[in-house]
Design goal:
The protein contains six helices and ten strands, in the order E-H-H-H-E-E-E-E-E-H-H-H-E-E-E-E. The chain is globular, with a radius of gyration of 18 Å.
Length: about 250
Amino acid sequence: MAINTDLVGKNYDVPEFTYDRRDAMLYALGIGADESDLEFLYEKHGPKVYPSFATVAGGFGGGQILKDLNIDLRMIIHGEQRVRIHDALPPKATVKTEAMVAGIYDKGSSALVDLQFKSSVDGNLLFENVVSMVVRGAGGVGDHGPKRPDTAQLPDRAPDKQVKIQTEGRQALVYRLSGDWNPLHADPEIAKAVGFERPILHGLCTFGCTFSSPVLPGDLLTAELWTEGKTVFAQTKNESGEVVLKNGMIELA
């Protein structure tokens, strides 16, 4: 089933997304927050909302787009994510999002599909997402759309800081409750059918710029960080030293 490349440049209205503090707390648990992160988990503190919650509040409205593109959900892997946040996310809000098929690109045996989302609260642009999906087995489509931005390059030196991150065996099952129902992250039979030993963790659960290798629930990860002025570069490795998230970059206001 070929991808419908005629949709590049087409705009979509995404259904509104309403969330409250319970949703923000459930998301925090899904990405691994614990008793040391009470400001994100306990209503006494508001709670605060993780900035990365913008990927949930504004990036899950692509169901109709994927259907129109003729994409089999079982063949999708989250490839990259870019987020721009203009202000702090409130503890509760109704988010209105406009979406666009920004580009489709040939990657040999696979295709890369860029979806752009712009999200507003009370008429003010609050955050933007660009979701890049790898569609396995869909190569040969050609390139359709503008030139993609250059990939972030890590500094040529040892990292300034390393942080150990222990994922949990049930983490994908908790994270999916925030709205990503792709069965690849829950169903062992579907995971095996598309080439994985078991369900993998959502890319946005571990979060980075380019999701270069699957992460399995329970993996111990090491985040490597470099700081240059107001820019933080990052990559994450598993216990075998394999890079699972690469080319990460955070630009601070």
